[in-house]
């Protein structure tokens, strides 16, 4: 049964509704953005492009498409750029007009939100704590059983950070092909995985016209405010449908210029980012586990954990940290998760140390009250 339609912001990064924390130098661990920040070349290009604000953007994003084509080794006509990956999710649903959508639980909220917005039935393939919230061959079984028109998979999954093997995704793609369904593989966090090439679904594009791979500049190149994402698909007719299912000029002059510039020497920047995030993620993981938090293995630029303090001490960790000027992602509104689950971004060493110190203080304060 679909819920009554109503709008509710369900993402991290909402520093504007944080009791004035946006003006108090809050540390935002609720949004998973590259801690190295936007490449200087991209920032300079964005500033320069402001001078073009008096003219319309290139609706076809031709220079940007060409740059992405080289970066991804995909033909330009198989690429669609838009105002962030989330916008493309809604365009995909609009283009397919599904009666039923299958999503994993937990996973990124916009898959379900887009489906409900277009009146589709939502079915969940529930991921279990006992299995570490991993996506396995049961996803193909669920697709076969539920016969959805669209399947959304996030790899690595958000908020759990779990990676799904390409063989599992290929199984899902084959079942989707048999039932004339679209498989959307969201790889917006995959660039932070050291061996990303071993997991990407791009290699399936030549065999499956029903596979759509989603990528974004948001996380990798730290430009969420510019809104820039793209889809890869070998079905060029479907790519054209995405253009039809939304307004023209989907990407601003500023975002297009920043995207083109970001892809210059992108491999070197991504490699540096992966090394940095890997080291800081390990440091954070060890610290969290040492405090008695249940930390799940993560491969991306964020960490998913369960906090037993909420139940043991009668506290709300998110609220306690917020009082210290730190925002983390409370995951209780993800389908399939209960209170006590949280997600934190991997930021710079200085910021990560401040989070660790604040967690130690919070735990000590509550222990002293027992």
Please explain how this structure is put together:
With 370 residues, this protein is α/β, with parallel strands linked by helices. The protein has 2 domains: 15-32 and 267-369, Aspartate Aminotransferase, domain 1, CATH 3.90.1150; 40-264, 3-Layer(aba) Sandwich (Aspartate Aminotransferase, domain 2). The chain has 13 helices and 13 strands. It has helices at residues 40-49, 62-72, 85-96, 109-117, 138-146, 166-178, 217-220, 236-244, 253-262, 266-290, 309-313, 317-322, 349-369, and strands spanning 27-28, 79-82, 100-105, 121-126, 150-154, 182-186, 211-216, 229-232, 294-295, 302-306, 326-327, 329-330, 341-345. The protein has a 7-stranded mixed beta sheet with strand order 2-8-7-6-5-3-4, with helices on both faces. A 4-stranded antiparallel beta sheet has the order 9-10-13-12, with helices on one face. The protein has a two-stranded parallel ribbon with strand order 1-11. Strand 3, helix 4 and strand 4 (121-126) form a beta-alpha-beta unit. Helix 2 packs parallel to helix 9.
């Amino acid at each position: 049964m679909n819920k009554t339609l109503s709008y509710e912001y369900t993402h991290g990064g909402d520093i504007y509704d944080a009791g004035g924390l946006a003006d108090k130098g809050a540390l935002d661990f609720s949004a998973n953005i590259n801690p190295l920040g936007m490449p200087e070349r991209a920032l300079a290009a964005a500033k320069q492009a402001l001078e073009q604000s008096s003219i319309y953007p290139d609706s076809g994003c031709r220079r940007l498409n060409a740059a992405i084509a080289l970066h991804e080794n995909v033909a330009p006509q198989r690429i669609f750029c838009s105002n962030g990956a989330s916008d493309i999710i809604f365009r995909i649903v609009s283009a397919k007009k599904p009666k039923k959508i299958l999503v994993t639980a937990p996973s990124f909220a916009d898959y379900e939100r887009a489906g409900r917005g277009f009146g589709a039935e939502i079915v969940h393939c529930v991921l279990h704590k006992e299995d570490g919230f991993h996506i396995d061959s049961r996803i193909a079984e669920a697709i076969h059983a539920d016969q959805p028109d669209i399947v959304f998979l996030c790899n690595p999954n958000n908020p759990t950070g779990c990676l799904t093997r390409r063989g599992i995704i290929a199984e899902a793609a084959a079942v989707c092909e048999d039932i004339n369904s679209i498989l959307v593989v969201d790889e917006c966090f995959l660039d932070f995985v050291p061996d990303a090439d071993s997991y990407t679904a791009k290699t399936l594009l030549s065999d499956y016209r029903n596979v759509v791979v989603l990528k974004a500049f948001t996380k990798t190149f730290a430009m969420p405010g510019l809104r820039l994402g793209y889809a890869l698909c070998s079905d060029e007719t479907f790519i054209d449908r995405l253009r039809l299912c939304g307004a023209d000029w989907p990407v601003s002059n500023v975002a297009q210029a920043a995207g083109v510039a970001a892809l210059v020497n992108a491999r070197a920047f991504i490699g540096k980012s992966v090394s940095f995030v890997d080291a800081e993620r390990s440091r954070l993981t060890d610290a969290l586990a040492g405090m008695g938090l249940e930390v799940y293995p993560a491969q991306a630029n964020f960490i998913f954990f369960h906090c037993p303090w909420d139940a043991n001490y009668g506290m709300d960790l998110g609220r306690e940290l917020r009082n210290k000027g730190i925002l983390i992602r409370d995951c209780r509104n993800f389908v399939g998760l209960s209170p006590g689950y949280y997600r934190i971004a991997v930021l710079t060493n200085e910021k990560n140390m401040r989070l660790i110190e604040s967690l130690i203080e919070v735990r000590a304060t509550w222990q002293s009250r027992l």
